[in-house]
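Forwarding the complex inputs:
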Amino acid sequence: MQTIAFWVFSFLAVAGAVLTVTRKNPLSSALSLVVSLVAVAGLFATLSAHFLFAIQLLVYAGAVMVLVIYVIMILNLRERDMRVLGLSRPRAALASVASLAVLLVLARVFAGGRTAFPADAKGLGSIEELATALFTRYLLQFEVVSVLLLAAMVGAVVLAMRKF
Amino acid sequence: MPPESHYLMVSLVLFLVGCVGVLARRNLLVVLMGIELMLNAANLAFAAFSRSRLLVDGEIVVFFVIAVAAAEAAVGLAIVVALYRRKETVNLDRFNVLHQ
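Prediction (whole assembly, two chains):
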Protein backbone atom coordinates (compact mmCIF):
# COMPACT_ATOMS: atom_id res chain seq x y z
CA MET A 1 0.00 0.00 0.00
CA GLN A 2 2.70 2.44 1.05
CA THR A 3 4.85 1.38 -1.89
CA ILE A 4 2.04 2.05 -4.37
CA ALA A 5 1.40 5.45 -2.74
CA PHE A 6 5.12 6.22 -2.97
CA TRP A 7 5.29 5.45 -6.70
CA VAL A 8 2.09 7.34 -7.53
CA PHE A 9 3.12 10.42 -5.56
CA SER A 10 6.69 10.45 -6.87
CA PHE A 11 5.45 10.11 -10.45
CA LEU A 12 3.06 13.04 -9.91
CA ALA A 13 5.76 15.11 -8.19
CA VAL A 14 8.31 14.62 -10.97
CA ALA A 15 5.76 15.05 -13.78
CA GLY A 16 4.44 18.24 -12.18
CA ALA A 17 7.98 19.56 -11.78
CA VAL A 18 8.89 18.82 -15.41
CA LEU A 19 5.70 20.52 -16.63
CA THR A 20 6.44 23.52 -14.38
CA VAL A 21 9.78 24.00 -16.05
CA THR A 22 8.67 23.35 -19.63
CA ARG A 23 5.29 25.11 -19.95
CA LYS A 24 5.45 28.44 -21.76
CA ASN A 25 2.49 30.00 -20.00
CA PRO A 26 3.43 30.88 -16.39
CA LEU A 27 -0.12 30.11 -15.28
CA SER A 28 0.11 26.48 -16.45
CA SER A 29 3.56 26.36 -14.83
CA ALA A 30 2.02 27.48 -11.54
CA LEU A 31 -0.79 24.92 -11.74
CA SER A 32 1.70 22.11 -12.49
CA LEU A 33 3.72 23.29 -9.51
CA VAL A 34 0.60 22.91 -7.35
CA VAL A 35 0.33 19.28 -8.52
CA SER A 36 3.99 18.71 -7.65
CA LEU A 37 3.64 20.32 -4.21
CA VAL A 38 0.52 18.30 -3.36
CA ALA A 39 2.33 15.12 -4.44
CA VAL A 40 5.26 15.99 -2.16
CA ALA A 41 2.73 16.48 0.64
CA GLY A 42 1.57 12.92 -0.09
CA LEU A 43 5.18 11.72 0.13
CA PHE A 44 5.42 13.41 3.55
CA ALA A 45 2.35 11.42 4.58
CA THR A 46 4.00 8.15 3.51
CA LEU A 47 6.97 9.16 5.71
CA SER A 48 4.45 9.45 8.59
CA ALA A 49 5.15 13.20 8.85
CA HIS A 50 1.49 14.05 9.29
CA PHE A 51 1.92 17.58 10.54
CA LEU A 52 4.24 18.42 7.65
CA PHE A 53 1.64 16.99 5.26
CA ALA A 54 -0.93 19.45 6.61
CA ILE A 55 1.50 22.39 6.64
CA GLN A 56 2.67 21.63 3.10
CA LEU A 57 -0.91 21.64 1.83
CA LEU A 58 -1.95 24.75 3.77
CA VAL A 59 1.11 26.96 3.44
CA TYR A 60 2.81 25.80 0.25
CA ALA A 61 0.11 24.47 -2.04
CA GLY A 62 -2.39 26.91 -0.52
CA ALA A 63 -1.01 30.28 0.51
CA VAL A 64 2.22 30.56 -1.46
CA MET A 65 0.73 29.28 -4.71
CA VAL A 66 -2.28 31.58 -4.38
CA LEU A 67 0.19 34.45 -4.05
CA VAL A 68 2.08 33.32 -7.17
CA ILE A 69 -1.08 32.90 -9.24
CA TYR A 70 -2.35 36.26 -8.00
CA VAL A 71 0.83 38.00 -9.17
CA ILE A 72 0.72 36.20 -12.54
CA MET A 73 -2.82 37.44 -13.06
CA ILE A 74 -1.96 40.99 -11.95
CA LEU A 75 0.93 41.15 -14.42
CA ASN A 76 -1.32 39.80 -17.21
CA LEU A 77 1.49 38.89 -19.62
CA ARG A 78 0.73 39.14 -23.34
CA GLU A 79 1.23 36.37 -25.89
CA ARG A 80 4.27 37.97 -27.48
CA ASP A 81 6.06 38.18 -24.12
CA MET A 82 5.60 34.48 -23.58
CA ARG A 83 6.93 33.50 -26.98
CA VAL A 84 10.42 34.76 -26.12
CA LEU A 85 10.22 33.43 -22.58
CA GLY A 86 9.94 29.70 -23.33
CA LEU A 87 12.69 27.22 -22.62
CA SER A 88 15.79 28.55 -24.39
CA ARG A 89 17.21 25.61 -26.36
CA PRO A 90 21.01 25.87 -25.86
CA ARG A 91 20.70 26.78 -22.20
CA ALA A 92 18.17 24.01 -21.57
CA ALA A 93 20.37 21.45 -23.33
CA LEU A 94 23.42 22.49 -21.34
CA ALA A 95 21.58 22.52 -18.01
CA SER A 96 19.92 19.15 -18.72
CA VAL A 97 23.19 17.46 -19.67
CA ALA A 98 24.91 18.84 -16.57
CA SER A 99 22.10 17.74 -14.26
CA LEU A 100 21.88 14.28 -15.90
CA ALA A 101 25.60 13.86 -15.16
CA VAL A 102 25.00 14.85 -11.52
CA LEU A 103 22.00 12.51 -11.40
CA LEU A 104 23.97 9.52 -12.68
CA VAL A 105 26.87 10.10 -10.28
CA LEU A 106 24.64 10.57 -7.23
CA ALA A 107 22.35 7.69 -8.25
CA ARG A 108 25.36 5.36 -8.01
CA VAL A 109 26.17 6.76 -4.57
CA PHE A 110 22.59 6.32 -3.31
CA ALA A 111 22.18 2.85 -4.83
CA GLY A 112 25.03 1.71 -2.60
CA GLY A 113 23.10 2.17 0.63
CA ARG A 114 19.54 0.84 0.36
CA THR A 115 18.81 1.25 4.04
CA ALA A 116 15.25 0.33 4.94
CA PHE A 117 13.33 2.63 7.25
CA PRO A 118 12.65 1.42 10.80
CA ALA A 119 9.28 -0.31 10.61
CA ASP A 120 7.70 1.42 13.61
CA ALA A 121 7.59 5.24 13.41
CA LYS A 122 7.15 5.51 17.23
CA GLY A 123 4.91 8.57 17.08
CA LEU A 124 7.36 10.52 14.91
CA GLY A 125 5.76 13.49 13.22
CA SER A 126 2.92 13.76 15.69
CA ILE A 127 1.99 17.30 16.62
CA GLU A 128 2.92 16.69 20.27
CA GLU A 129 6.46 15.63 19.50
CA LEU A 130 7.00 18.40 16.97
CA ALA A 131 5.61 21.06 19.30
CA THR A 132 7.71 19.87 22.23
CA ALA A 133 10.89 20.18 20.18
CA LEU A 134 9.80 23.44 18.59
CA PHE A 135 8.98 25.24 21.84
CA THR A 136 11.92 23.96 23.90
CA ARG A 137 15.10 23.24 21.96
CA TYR A 138 14.19 25.36 18.94
CA LEU A 139 12.46 28.25 20.70
CA LEU A 140 15.05 30.84 19.67
CA GLN A 141 14.93 29.78 16.01
CA PHE A 142 11.14 29.85 16.15
CA GLU A 143 11.18 33.46 17.37
CA VAL A 144 13.76 34.43 14.74
CA VAL A 145 11.53 32.97 12.02
CA SER A 146 8.55 34.95 13.30
CA VAL A 147 10.60 38.17 13.12
CA LEU A 148 11.72 37.15 9.61
CA LEU A 149 8.11 36.70 8.52
CA LEU A 150 7.21 40.13 9.91
CA ALA A 151 10.19 41.70 8.11
CA ALA A 152 9.23 39.93 4.88
CA MET A 153 5.66 41.18 5.16
CA VAL A 154 6.75 44.80 5.71
CA GLY A 155 9.37 44.47 2.96
CA ALA A 156 6.88 43.08 0.46
CA VAL A 157 4.39 45.87 1.14
CA VAL A 158 7.06 48.58 0.84
CA LEU A 159 8.55 47.07 -2.34
CA ALA A 160 5.24 46.68 -4.11
CA MET A 161 3.90 50.08 -3.02
CA ARG A 162 6.82 52.30 -3.90
CA LYS A 163 6.90 54.10 -7.22
CA PHE A 164 10.41 53.69 -8.60
CA MET B 1 7.83 0.62 2.55
CA PRO B 2 10.36 1.70 -0.10
CA PRO B 3 13.96 2.16 1.12
CA GLU B 4 15.43 5.54 1.98
CA SER B 5 17.41 5.71 -1.26
CA HIS B 6 14.16 5.83 -3.29
CA TYR B 7 13.06 8.97 -1.46
CA LEU B 8 16.50 10.51 -1.94
CA MET B 9 16.34 9.76 -5.67
CA VAL B 10 12.96 11.48 -6.00
CA SER B 11 14.32 14.42 -4.04
CA LEU B 12 17.39 14.55 -6.29
CA VAL B 13 15.32 14.46 -9.47
CA LEU B 14 13.04 17.23 -8.19
CA PHE B 15 16.05 19.33 -7.23
CA LEU B 16 17.68 18.92 -10.64
CA VAL B 17 14.45 19.73 -12.50
CA GLY B 18 14.13 22.88 -10.40
CA CYS B 19 17.77 23.69 -11.12
CA VAL B 20 17.19 23.34 -14.88
CA GLY B 21 14.21 25.66 -14.50
CA VAL B 22 16.31 28.30 -12.77
CA LEU B 23 19.19 28.02 -15.25
CA ALA B 24 17.32 27.62 -18.54
CA ARG B 25 14.18 29.74 -18.20
CA ARG B 26 14.15 33.49 -18.73
CA ASN B 27 10.77 34.14 -17.17
CA LEU B 28 11.33 35.59 -13.72
CA LEU B 29 8.15 33.97 -12.37
CA VAL B 30 9.17 30.51 -13.55
CA VAL B 31 12.65 31.00 -12.08
CA LEU B 32 11.01 31.70 -8.70
CA MET B 33 8.95 28.52 -9.12
CA GLY B 34 12.16 26.60 -9.85
CA ILE B 35 13.56 27.86 -6.55
CA GLU B 36 10.40 26.65 -4.78
CA LEU B 37 10.89 23.23 -6.40
CA MET B 38 14.48 23.04 -5.18
CA LEU B 39 13.46 24.00 -1.63
CA ASN B 40 10.77 21.32 -1.75
CA ALA B 41 13.24 18.69 -2.88
CA ALA B 42 15.46 19.54 0.09
CA ASN B 43 12.41 19.29 2.37
CA LEU B 44 11.66 15.80 1.09
CA ALA B 45 15.23 14.68 1.79
CA PHE B 46 15.05 16.15 5.31
CA ALA B 47 11.77 14.35 6.00
CA ALA B 48 13.24 11.05 4.73
CA PHE B 49 16.34 11.40 6.94
CA SER B 50 14.15 12.29 9.89
CA ARG B 51 12.08 9.13 9.36
CA SER B 52 15.09 6.85 8.99
CA ARG B 53 16.82 8.17 12.14
CA LEU B 54 13.52 8.54 14.04
CA LEU B 55 14.59 12.06 15.04
CA VAL B 56 12.12 14.91 14.99
CA ASP B 57 14.85 17.48 14.22
CA GLY B 58 14.65 16.92 10.46
CA GLU B 59 10.96 17.73 10.50
CA ILE B 60 11.67 20.91 12.47
CA VAL B 61 14.09 21.95 9.74
CA VAL B 62 11.39 21.32 7.12
CA PHE B 63 9.02 23.49 9.17
CA PHE B 64 11.53 26.34 9.18
CA VAL B 65 12.30 25.93 5.48
CA ILE B 66 8.59 26.22 4.66
CA ALA B 67 8.38 29.42 6.74
CA VAL B 68 11.45 30.90 5.05
CA ALA B 69 10.16 29.87 1.62
CA ALA B 70 6.90 31.68 2.31
CA ALA B 71 8.83 34.83 3.25
CA GLU B 72 11.01 34.43 0.16
CA ALA B 73 7.97 34.05 -2.10
CA ALA B 74 6.36 37.19 -0.67
CA VAL B 75 9.46 39.36 -1.10
CA GLY B 76 10.38 37.78 -4.44
CA LEU B 77 6.94 38.40 -5.91
CA ALA B 78 6.97 41.98 -4.61
CA ILE B 79 10.28 42.46 -6.44
CA VAL B 80 8.73 40.96 -9.60
CA VAL B 81 5.85 43.44 -9.38
CA ALA B 82 8.24 46.36 -8.81
CA LEU B 83 10.48 45.30 -11.72
CA TYR B 84 7.47 44.82 -14.01
CA ARG B 85 6.30 48.35 -13.24
CA ARG B 86 9.66 49.73 -14.27
CA LYS B 87 10.50 47.60 -17.32
CA GLU B 88 7.10 46.25 -18.48
CA THR B 89 8.59 42.76 -18.79
CA VAL B 90 9.51 39.71 -16.71
CA ASN B 91 12.34 38.68 -19.04
CA LEU B 92 15.47 38.20 -16.91
CA ASP B 93 17.76 39.19 -19.79
CA ARG B 94 16.29 42.68 -19.73
CA PHE B 95 17.28 43.27 -16.10
CA ASN B 96 20.93 43.99 -16.83
CA VAL B 97 21.52 47.56 -15.57
CA LEU B 98 24.29 46.38 -13.27
CA HIS B 99 26.51 45.01 -16.03
CA GLN B 100 26.06 47.67 -18.66
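Chain B touches chain A through 69 residues (CB under 8 Å).
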